[in-house]
Design brief:
FAD/NAD(P)-binding domain, single chain, 5-stranded parallel β-sheet, 10 helices
Length: 425
């Protein structure tokens, strides 16, 4: 939370790896203190946005309330802060025989308060952050046994939920200074670790797997269940706070199975190895479905905008799409670090337009040598499934994404506003 939290608002709780209610409390306090909560229109779903050059204006069509009433709003500048995945549904593969299972099947994105797993045998399908969070939580709160079923392993890193450095800094320094020092310590450590993964992947791999062996003991099959086929940070790492996942395995409350599903059965799952897992409940932690700009349909002067055919400018705007920015965070660090920088840049941009009397700003590529590159160089399934829908990054600045906070800080806070940006009155 020292990097996921806002730069201007110190995180005061003891736990640096916080739970959902604590994070929600923090966000609500910030929104209330700055009067943002009074400016939010809830239960509005953006359907489309149409830009008119003669009017220098976006018209945004929304669906609101349970009645799904259609309404429209206009704005001079449109800022999409809708994240990068579908909120209405997650990704769910086609599982053979799914209708045969007699128990309950739940996707974490559709979790409801009436879900009861007390005393039940639970299978969680998946090995990403959601599964690694759910499995020990369910094991510690009433499930008879939890099995994490994965096709392939994920790298896992153990960290304490409380940051000892932050605790000491708060004792010796003013709160805001302690927060900023801890924030930069974590930013720099994160950048160093990522660079180590890129430059010396075998060393980092041995380090991560060494911790797992230390947690689970010499007799556990770490090679099968915790050794991925890829290098660290080719996909996201999973953070295990206070080693809770591994402690649950040692207590016998959690099992890890690495195999492929052949079919669902009435009583559980049959695997391609021939083994069967009995279950009273199955949780499909199978990932996200990604969608740009919240799935809104964009048009510019009546022409549909296909973002997959656009370059992304400084990681936040789109080639030849006027007066529109979107927030996309880091894949290798806390999302809020990049969101903060995007906020600063957009404010700089709007203030510049006000001072000069501009009504329109449009990123435009005039470099014929610019080469297309994939939006994100990640091998994760949820990224690969969505690449065809996403904008492209370019081979050079300002169309290149660096995934580096220090470089982005210099570029977005102090860099030129006119590189590849066309202004108009």
């Amino acid at each position: 939370m020292y990097t996921l939290g806002y730069r201007f608002r110190p995180w005061k709780e003891a736990k640096a790896i916080a739970d959902g209610p604590s994070i929600l409390k923090y966000i609500r306090e910030v929104a209330s203190d700055h009067g943002i909560d009074a400016k939010i229109r809830y239960r509005h779903r953006v359907l489309s946005a149409a830009w008119s050059t003669p009017d220098a204006r976006w018209t945004v069509e929304v669906e609101r309330g349970e009645a799904k009433e259609i309404a429209s709003f206009t704005c001079n500048f449109l800022w999409m802060c809708s994240g990068y995945y579908r909120t209405d549904e997650g990704y769910l593969p086609e599982f053979p025989g799914r209708d045969r299972f007699k128990g309950r099947i739940v996707h974490p994105q559709k979790w409801t308060d009436d879900i009861d797993y007390a005393g039940k045998k639970v299978v969680v399908i998946g090995s990403g952050a959601t599964a690694v969070t759910l499995v020990p939580a369910m094991a510690d709160s009433g499930a008879a046994h939890v099995t994490m079923l994965q096709r392939s392993p994920t790298y896992m890193a153990v960290r304490p939920s409380q940051d000892p450095f932050a605790t000491k800094a708060r004792r010796r320094l003013p709160l805001e200074l302690a927060y900023m020092v801890t924030r930069w310590k974590n930013v720099l450590l994160g950048m160093y670790f990522y660079q180590m993964c890129m430059r010396r992947p075998e060393k980092v791999k041995n380090l991560l797997l060494g911790y797992v062996r230390q947690m689970l003991g010499p007799d556990y099959d770490v090679g099968t269940h915790f050794t991925p086929r890829y290098n660290p940070w080719d996909q996201r790492l999973c953070l295990v706070p206070d080693a809770d996942f591994f402690r649950a395995i040692r207590r016998g409350k959690v099992s890890v199975v690495t195999d492929h599903i052949e079919t669902f059965t009435e009583r559980g799952l049959k695997l391609k190895s021939g083994a069967e897992i009995e279950a009273d409940m199955i949780v499909t932690a199978t990932g996200l479905a990604l969608v740009p700009v919240g799935g809104a349909k964009l048009t510019v002067d009546g022409q549909p905008v296909d973002l997959a055919k656009r370059f992304i400018y400084k990681g936040m705007m789109y080639s030849d799409v006027p007066n529109l920015a979107s927030v996309f965070g880091y894949t290798n660090a806390s999302w809020t670090l990049k969101a903060d920088l995007v906020c600063e840049y957009v404010c700089r941009l709007l203030n510049h337009m006000d001072r000069r009397g501009y009504r329109q700003c449009t990123p435009h590529n005039g470099d014929p040598t610019l080469q297309e590159e994939p939006w994100v160089s990640f091998s994760s399934g949820y990224i690969q499934r969505a690449l065809a829908l996403q904008p492209k990054q370019g081979s050079k600045r300002p169309w290149k994404l660096h995934q580096n906070y220090a470089l982005d800080l210099l570029s977005l806070r102090f860099g030129r506003l006119r590189d590849a940006m066309v202004f108009s009155r």
